[in-house]
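During the reporting period the student researcher (J.K.) took over the structure-prediction task from the postdoctoral fellow and processed the backlog of single-chain submissions. One of the processed entries is reproduced below for the supervisory committee.
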Amino acid sequence: MGYTVITGASSGIGYEAALAFAARGKHLILAARRLDKLQELQKKILDQYPYIKVDVQSVDLTDIEQVYSFYESLADYELDTFINNAGFGHFGSIAEQDVNKITDMLHLNIEALTILSTLFVRDYEQAEGAQLINISSRAGYTVVGNAVTYSATKFYVSAFTEGLALELNEKGAKLQAKVLAPAATESEFAKRSLDVDQFEYEGNIQRYHTSKEMAACMLELYDSEKTVGIVDGKTFNFELKDPIFSHVRTSMK
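J.K. obtained the following structure tokens:
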């Protein structure tokens, strides 16, 4: 059995996805900056599923050199699923946003995801059952006021992944590329986006999913033949869809 790689696994959707895939009997490679949190998760998984192999790596994917070295460290593993979950947001007007924070967000949400996706596709394009799941956002399909730069990064994730899925399909590749687009999800996302120590979703956010609920949605997407798993902005229901963005084929060679 191959390994499932999950970035940003120390909390939130990545953390719950690790538990969900472990329950499926999947071996795991979990990556994030906080090694102590990863080791706690590793122990929790092994206590419940002692037959699972769980490796953890501390890596800062805002550092592009570490992005490449992280992927190189996977060379001795046989992978079957790669989940680019690591990412963060920013709330605030464009003129007032922290440029250093935005730079890190661009490195993580766009560059790291693109590099890891590209390298995985190169190695596993013809691997039976292989899947690439990139985590976007509802904000990657609807621009969110006061979070424009973050929305733009997630529009990139959505467009890149949908385009990759179409390309793979046209080539007859065995690898499937998919995009998960959550709406508000209870996690550490709001704290980091707002640069606060504490944030309570209850009472501050009218509607939201838990990270465990979104991990279950990710499994629905994983099990399906659809490209997009997205939370409807009006009903808050989770829906599986074909590519949403319009696309054209090119005759250029």
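The committee noted the following: The CA atoms of residues 154 and 239 lie 18 Å apart.
J.K. will present the remaining backlog at the next meeting.
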